[in-house]
Amino acid sequence: MRRLLLPFLVAAVAFATVAALPAAPRPAAAAPDRGHEVTYDRYSLKVDGERVFLWSGEFHYFRLPSQQLWRDVLEKIRAAGFTGVSLYFNWAYHSPAPGQYDFSGVRDVDRLLDLTEELGLYTVVRPGPYINAEASGGGFPAWLKQVPGRARSSAPGYTEAYHEWLDHINPIIARHQVTRGGSVIAYNVENEYAANTDAAYMQDLQDTARAAGIDVPITHNQCCDASWTPTWASGLGAVQIPGVDDYPQSFECQTPEVWGPWGEGVTERLSENAPVYGAEYQAGAIDLHRAGYEKCRELTGPAFMKYFYKSNLIASGATMHGFYMAFGGTNWGWLGQPNDVYTSYDYGAAITETRQLTEKYDEFKRQGYFVRAVAPLTRTDPADAPASANPALGTLARSNPDTRTQFVLVRHADRASTTTEDTSLDWSTPDGEYQVPVRVSGRDAKILVAGYDLGGQRLVWSSSEIMTHERIAGRDVALLYGRSGEPGATVLRYPSRPSVRVLSGSVRTSWRDGDLRLDYTHAGLARVAVSGGGRPPMLLLLGTDQTAAEFWRTDTDAGPVLVRGTELVRSARVGGSTLSLRADTAAPGEVEVFAPRSVRRLTVGGESVRVRPTTSGSLAGRLHGPAPVRLPKLSGWRYRPEAPESRPDFDDSRWTVADRTTSVSPFPPTTLPVLFAGDYGFDYGQVWYRGHFTATGTETTVDLNAITGRDGVYQVWFNGRYLGSARGGVQADSEPPVNQNPGPGSFRLPALAPGERGVISVLVENLGHNDDWTADDNRFKQPRGLVGASLPGSTATVRWRLQGAHRERADPVRGPLNTGGLYGERHGWHLPEAGGSWAAPRPPGPGVSWYRTDFRLDLPRDQDVPLGLRFDGTGPYRVQIYLNGWQVGRHTADLGPQREFVLPAGLLRERGANTLALAVTALDEAAWSPPRLVVQANHWTGRR
Ligand code: IPT
């Protein structure tokens, strides 16, 4: 072991620098001419007078502790066609103790906002102070529980505390506003502030932001629907753009087939002067019932997205959307709220926790490209919808008052219906009366467009949906799609008869009175070249859901580029005659590019690709996939038992004495002294208690109460002997219906003689802090740790001391949420540089056992290979997983559901030495089955 110490120290030092990536040089203060004006009206946001369609995805940087992966995920979000991101800022993540703030390394949100700016993603910032988000304390730091005065009100104690937070975060946000050349387009105050509201507080949040130079529109996300009051649309505390959160599909992931249990999901207009804002629109779900996130992904899958998102677009005319979540991430360390979530916050999102793209991503892409390409959508009013000949299918319409472009939603009248129906729409389009045949198969919805100037073309109508169109190399390239096997028709108008060539697929054309009509069945990818007719040439691509999703659009200085194939296109650049793509592949395959005229050559990921011109005017070539990777087997495990705290002779003289008799907690202590961990500065993770007494001889049991959060446990020893464990409570109430007996446990003591000395040792889990959903302190200020202790029948006085992770001594790199108060954590056993004597592994017994091993990786530089740690065993134990000192997850082997944990690149050294440490808390004797490394995905990325 000794031998290993030195290299580890070196690795640890090197590592700290990797983890806490130095901040990039800050751009000099933005020159005023880089700034843009942000305004809005009842239709949309505007930047320098140009309407903006905000289609944003929610992303939590604090759930992805790796700057390099921020870029990866944000590039994936951008590539899906999102025009923006919505970001919560988590106060607890930055503040271990009052007055202490950290914005470095994985907390460097200044860098994060540099990145959104560099990627051209508009950013809605949501700094709370309260965010909910299934984060511990709803984003409130645990130290706030000791601050008197109701949180989320204008009580002085709370006011002073949140001003401290805003004084730190607001200046960072302010310098990244669109008005100063940055990406921040809107600033959201509070979160679903609907119960126990205090308008003066709501107003002060905004006044404070304005005083810090925030000059973009201020927004709010109202809970659920406008039946919740106030909506913050008027009166004291009103925001400029009030928005609504919609979760029509509920969080019942275990029944993914149940359709829209929480209603229509139409975002309400809360203000006549501001755009309709779907601040949080459901794009996944919390796994409340531990059904597994794949079920949540099914619950909120493409069918839901098609039906609800498109219905909402046309019903509400919303031009501001935030989809919650685009990427969920990981509740690493003690970040998660303890009752509703576990380590993974995958959320069933379009991008998985392992950063993979799903069929939900494809649907986002189809819709995102559409809302981005078709500008008239940014200003629409309700319009008469064409009648549907088949009453099973309903229609709803909007039109743009300037261009008269019409948008018609077609879907089942009964939203639960799954039948396939054909209809004919009696459509009075801006270009004349038409009978338009449409088919809807099952849970689907289409937005059909009529009267649209599609580049240089005139689209009269189409029963295919528009995905995107671009002017590339002097012609319009348009991509339309429908479900495979469904009939489609498109009508385009020309001053004179154009010439039409069907390059591939089966498309029938007809010409009548200026209308070119194309009829086809959606299958594969049909290609039609149209030229002449008094308009610029056009390449019309007619795809299916699947083939359309194979396209990527991206901008270059030389104009837009469309790419077909690859797993992902991150960005493109044109230099001379070469188009350079940054793209990922999962397997060898074809790539086809539609690029500016100058382009003759193609490089992908820095490698040149042999290309040939196609009859479609594109260039095509082949790409290779990733090389297979082999992972080391985890072996050489070493072991070290802990919990010396359970022994009677353990020296606890330097521990904190529990001597308090009062607490600001709304829950009155049932016994004294106060044992609440937070009242003594121990906020996160496990806490140890030791109670000393001199027996009277009448003791029979020790009766305890502990609050741990759902699924937490505590364990009890007497004079070194294990007495057993009990489930901790979630919540105690101080008002009826009263539960003043949370997490009870009664432990039998051995017979004691009068005058005999006894030591009770208790290890209590703290899985995190409740949220403050109801803004009344009752949940949020619930204590953690022991909340009651007594020796029934005895008059002996128990002197208690406690020990844990103190808020004044948080890990300066990994932050306050990384570790708790286990002996091994207090002595750095989780750190790469841990010394001490470690032995051959033995199975865990009651208490805590540590296991460590090292492994080297040499993953290919030009591949992205997310790795996971997989546990196969089950038993009465829980495992805290430390990767190079970072607590990346918690495996609850007795409850589940999660067995595989993400080892995020950045914390994981992909080429180098890594240390894995496991703290196994067993409730009983357990079998030891070490975890293994697994490849979660493998992509070739080329030079990144
Ligand atoms: C909405 C919250 O605003 C958000 O923070 C998150 O908690 C989300 O729910 C659920 O994941 S609250 C709404 C569902 C009532």
Q: Please, could you describe this protein's structure?
A:
This protein folds into four domains: 31-357, Alpha-Beta Barrel (TIM Barrel), CATH 3.20.20.80; 380-623, Beta-galactosidase, domain 2 (beta-galactosidase, domain 2, 3-layer Sandwich), CATH 2.102.20; 643-806, Jelly Rolls; 822-940, Jelly Rolls. With 944 residues, the chain is mostly beta strands. It starts with a helix and ends with a strand. It has eleven helices and 55 strands. A hairpin with a 2-residue loop joins strand 18 and strand 19 (457-462). Helix 8 (302-316) runs parallel beside helix 9. Belongs to the glycosyl hydrolase 35 family. Its EC number is 3.2.1.23.
**Cα Rg:** 30 Å
**Which second-level CATH architecture of the largest domain applies?**
Alpha-Beta Barrel
- At the fourth level of CATH, the homologous superfamily of the largest domain is Glycosidases
- First-last Cα distance: 38 Å
Relative helix content: 10-25%
Widest sheet: strand ordering: 4-5-6-7-8-9-10-11
Which fold name fills CATH's third level, the topology of the largest domain? TIM Barrel
CATH class of the largest domain: Alpha Beta
Tally of discrete structural domains = 4
Q: How many beta-strand runs?
A: 55
The pLDDT mean sits at: 94
- SS-derived structural category: mainly beta
Shape: elongated
- In the predicted model, the low-confidence regions spanning at least 5 consecutive residues are 1-32
Ligand inventory: 1-methylethyl 1-thio-beta-D-galactopyranoside
Largest sheet: 8 strands, parallel, barrel
How much of the polypeptide forms β-strand, as a percent range? Answer: 35-45%
Keywords: Glycoprotein, Glycosidase, Hydrolase, Signal
Organism: Actinophytocola xanthii
EC number: 3.2.1.23
Catalytic activity: Hydrolysis of terminal non-reducing beta-D-galactose residues in beta-D-galactosides
